[in-house]
Amino acid sequence: MASIGEVKAALAQAAEQVLTGLRGVAVGTNHAKVFQAIQRAERGRQRLHEAATLIQGGATAAREHVGVLG
Q1: Residue span of the structural domain in which 59 resides
Q2: Of 20, 21, 28, 40, which residue is least crowded by CB atoms under 10 Å?
Q3: Which long-range contacts (CB under 8 A, 24 or more apart) does 35-40 make?
Q4: 8 and 52 Cβ atoms separated by less than 8 Å
Q5: How many domains does the chain have?
Q6: What is the pTM assigned to this prediction?
Q7: Predicted confidence (pLDDT) per residue in 22-53, tens digit
């Protein structure tokens, strides 16, 4: 099973690849839909980061609770 860090790294890499591709398509164009796609991809990347942070916080809280239980 992959660790949280490995999943986070894989998702971050995939998001970067999407953004790189979109930015490559956007070169030389001023089409609003391309810029909208880039903005959405950037928001998705940010939300993935936020989700990973929340998951790590949940894992930490669970470990602390196990420590309290003994």
Answers
A1: 4-69
A2: 28
A3: none
A4: yes
A5: 1
A6: 0.71
A7: 888 888 888 888 889 999 999 988 998 898 88
